[in-house]
Amino acid sequence: MTSVAGGLHACRDGTHTRLADGRLLCWAPGPLLGGCVYAVDAEIAEQPVPRALGRRSGLLGREFWRLWTRAEARAKVRDVPIIVWIDTVAWTADADLPDGPRVEVFTVEAGDLVVSYAVAELTSGGGPTD
User: Fold this and answer.
1) Which of 13, 30, 80, 111 is deepest in the core (most CB within 10 A)?
2) How far apart are CA 28 and CA 123, in angstroms?
3) Distance of CA 72 to the CA centre of its chain
4) In terms of C-beta density within 10 A (0-12 exposed, 13-18 middle, 19 or more buried), how is residue 118 classed?
5) Using 50, 70 and 90 to split pLDDT, how confident is the model at 26?
6) Where are the domains of the chain?
7) Where residue 16 falls among pLDDT bands split at 50, 70, 90?
8) Of 41, 62, 42, 64, residue with least CA distance to 53
């Protein structure tokens, strides 16, 4: 289940992302599978693309936000800062790291949002597998 909330909200049974307008999007994927890590990222589909990122990526509008949220979700489940991710991975080609666990990403448009969900396996140590 995905929900959008304003104000104070605790995402105890899921993961969340904050939107540019202050809303908080929470994803509680239902019964969690042991050994997996979950992430969600969302952006307002019609918001302007930051100029520097638009120039760097060559993308605009919804296509930018679709690929950006997919990159953010992948980076989150792998615990990699997004600034490192975009310098390491061909995110504009919807790429992932060549090594490590397979990360499943699903993207939808919901209302005024582009939302990407990601799931990856964990190692026995609690972090994404290598």
Assistant:
1) 80
2) 22
3) 4
4) buried
5) confident
6) 2-121
7) confident
8) 64
